[in-house]
Design a protein that fits this description.
Length: 376
């Protein structure tokens, strides 16, 4: 007997708006409210409102919270200033990626770790185990937060009408406590769409009043509710990796082209951190014989590639890679894919690359990621 999907504090509101719901990582989540293309376009040109309450919040506190995170994660979290955030990863001792994370430093001895919904328990268990010997506490805070995101070029104006927080001074990957529409919130300038925007961490009971206030404030700016479907096409256009697609335990950060997140120069804990030896070996392998590289592929035709489809050399040279994510692009008007391909085929403009779509070799252009970058 399978467990019933969990529901966010906004579940009834989503259903009242006619959302198509889907089971995602054990949560009942809105897939779309109407047209996913319209929702996608709204975020690119105006603003979209997302319920992200399925994400996994874990709080790490105590005199050695920074040292614990430096040991448990690959990043240098003790170097993050209070009020700032860092993209990082947690790896297995063998170097495989357990999850990619955003870590917010809320104070000298307090951090908020945000894990993907599908990996939240794995990350919590790993942090709890790795906390042994540190004067720090790891707490599961998933029940204490709802998470609402407002994303798109109109988002600063919409949010600014509901708060006196200094949004203009809030940098990308930074967060500050504030009040939005009378609701206490952690206001973070982060997102997963490739647009400017904010993620608002609030108490579950405050989620619905905040959603309604944002909806009303954004009415004249074209704000629309958005589901997970357009969130996926937005992040794909922005070249952002998704765990289970571009990232997995089968890959190290160096295999994924994200070796920059691994900080071998951190000196806390004598430079020790989980996975260090394996990651040093992975870095050496990557320098000597580069692994397959994550690239963008743009279709010449209309057929859409999907994760797992082989990338092939059109001249009959065999399989040279594999699609990790693919979808039609509302912004570019053509199907797109991210794929790991052999280094010899990874340079933008490399000719003779195709995707095997159900036995037919469809030509694709190799391009640099991201496919889309907003004007700043």
């Amino acid at each position: 007997m399978t467990d019933a999907p969990r529901r966010t504090p906004l579940d009834a509101l989503h259903r009242s708006l006619g959302a198509s719901m889907t089971d995602f990582a054990g949560w009942d989540m809105p897939l779309r409210y109407g047209s996913e293309r319209d929702e996608h376009t709204a975020v690119r040109t105006r603003a979209g409102l997302f319920d992200l309450s399925h994400m996994g919040e874990i709080t790490v506190t105590g005199p050695q919270a920074a040292e614990l995170l430096d040991y448990a994660l690959v990043g240098h979290l003790s170097a993050v200033a209070p009020g700032r955030a860092r993209y990082t990863m947690i790896c297995e001792p063998g170097g495989g990626i357990l999850d990619d994370l955003i870590v917010y430093r809320l104070g000298a001895e307090r951090y908020l770790v945000v894990a993907n919904a599908s990996n939240a328990q794995v990350v919590l268990d790993a942090l709890t185990e790795r906390a042994a010997g540190f004067d720090a506490a790891v707490a599961d805070d998933r029940e204490n937060y709802a998470l609402i995101a407002v994303q798109g070029p109109e988002s600063p104006g919409i949010l600014g009408s509901l708060t006196d927080a200094d949004l203009a001074g809030l940098k990308y990957y930074a967060g500050l406590p504030g009040t939005v529409a009378g609701v206490p919130a952690l206001i973070a300038r982060t997102g997963y769409t490739g647009e400017d925007g904010f993620e608002l961490f609030v108490a579950p009971g405050d989620a619905e009043p905040l959603w309604r206030a944002l909806t009303e404030a954004g009415k004249d700016a074209g704000l629309v509710p958005c589901g997970l479907s357009c969130r996926d096409t937005l992040r794909l256009e922005a070249g952002m990796p998704l765990y289970g697609h571009e990232l997995s335990t089968a890959l190290t950060p160096f295999d994924a082209g994200l070796g920059r997140v691994v900080k071998f120069d951190k000196t806390t804990n004598g430079g020790r951190f989980v996975g260090r030896e394996a990651l040093e070996a992975a870095a050496a392998r990557a320098a000597e014989a580069p692994p397959r590289k994550l690239v963008g592929l743009v279709a010449e035709g209309r057929r859409v590639p999907r994760a797992g489809y082989p990338v092939v050399a059109a001249d009959g040279g065999g399989t040279i890679g594999e699609v990790t994510s693919g979808a039609p692009s509302p912004t570019l008007g053509r199907p797109l894919a991210m794929a790991y391909v052999d280094p010899a085929y990874a340079a933008p403009g490399t000719p003779g690359v195709a995707v095997d779509i159900r036995g037919r070799h469809e030509p694709y252009e190799v391009v640099a990621l991201p496919f889309y970058q907003r004007q700043r």
